[in-house]
Design goal:
single chain; 156 residues; mainly alpha; Hypothetical protein af1432; 44% helix; globular; disordered C terminus
Length: 156
């Protein structure tokens, strides 16, 4: 987890886009959404927090080179956390199954619906573009905190 602040969500495209948030910011956003939609599901929260733990520098850009795959790497890293997960009454296999959709989870949508992972990405990317256009904020604060506030007036 310590390296995720240094892994751009946009990968190599981050040098040509305004999408500047990290894999850690995204993982925390997914965690917040899972906590909102399934407040009692602590295993899903762990899966949300760990879902991008296998990403390499430049995110998806390097995948496929020499067989690199962030899912495979992530599963191995989650398995390394087995002693910690067991202390919290869960297992690496359970967290992996929730994250991959092998078991029902708020992380995975029904067929054809948007996953919470993608929801965070879309909202976060859209809010960043909006803030750059309006110059409201140049920071990459969580998209959930920058949702438009309802205005008062004759149009509301």
């Amino acid at each position: 987890m310590r390296r995720l602040p240094f892994v751009s969500h946009a990968g190599a495209a981050s040098i040509t886009t305004t999408q500047t948030y990290s894999r850690l910011e995204h993982s925390l956003g997914v965690l917040a959404l899972v906590a909102h939609f399934a407040p009692e599901d602590h295993e899903a929260r762990a899966a949300a927090l760990l879902h991008d733990i296998g990403h390499l520098p430049f995110s998806h850009t390097l995948e496929g080179i020499a067989g690199l795959d962030h899912h495979t790497i992530g599963h191995a890293r989650i398995r390394e956390l087995e002693p910690v997960l067991e202390r919290h009454d869960t297992s690496a296999d359970r967290i992996i199954a929730l994250g991959s959709g092998e078991q029902p989870s708020p992380l995975r949508a029904s067929s054809g619906a948007m996953k919470i992972d993608h929801l965070d990405s879309f909202v976060r990317s859209g809010m960043r573009r909006t803030s750059c256009r309006s110059r409201c904020s140049e920071t990459s604060s969580p998209a959930h905190s920058r949702l438009p506030r309802r205005r008062s007036g004759p149009w509301s």
